[in-house]
Design a protein that fits this description.
Layout (H helix, E strand, L loop, with lengths): L9 E3 L1 H5 L10 H16 L4 E3 L5 H15 L3 H4 L12 E3 L5 E2 L2 E2 L4 E3 L29 H12 L1
Parallel strand pairs: 1-2
Antiparallel strand pairs: 3-6, 4-5
């Protein structure tokens, strides 16, 4: 469904973070409002920004810097960690390799996720089972991204 959104929504998820782990979080009106905003953003824009997530700006800046360094590498270097189904769909994708609704995306990408061990989610998680593929360069990418993924999780 196409929409005519004018900007990417910015959603403050701090009420959700504050209630994380609370068995009654679904009763909280602040959490319910965040969920409504996320639902609307996913349906209307397909994307959203979040604030109030608690991830330090310094870590976000470091992740951006290390990512720019990786994408600045020669193509041959990036291909050393090429995304494959065997790797649980982790790794590097060149421009046009990622497909959304049958249309090639016009960006490079590198996918890292929380690692999923075999059988962790039974059949439901089988396609995502695998370990992240880490580049040798930049050398600190693995450490930074693992911290970032941990905080996002």
């Amino acid at each position: 469904m196409a929409t005519d959104f004018k900007s990417i929504p910015l959603i403050d998820i701090s009420p959700l973070i504050a209630k994380c782990g609370d068995p009654l979080m679904d009763k909280d009106p602040g959490v319910a409002e965040v969920v409504r905003q996320l639902d609307r953003a996913c349906r209307e824009a397909g994307f959203f920004y979040v604030k109030g997530h608690g991830i330090p700006d310094s870590l976000i800046r470091e992740v951006r810097t290390v990512s720019h360094k990786f994408f600045g590498l020669p193509y041959e270097e990036k291909l050393k960690i090429k995304l494959t189904p065997a790797a649980g769909y982790r790794g590097y994708q060149r421009v046009g390799e990622n497909i959304t609704k049958g249309v090639p995306d016009m960006h490079e990408a590198i996918d890292f996720y929380r690692e999923v061990k075999q059988g962790m989610y039974r059949d439901l998680g089988r396609t995502m089972e695998g370990c992240n593929l880490w580049p040798c360069d930049p050398p600190n990418m693995k450490t930074l991204m693992e911290e970032y993924i941990d905080r996002c999780t």
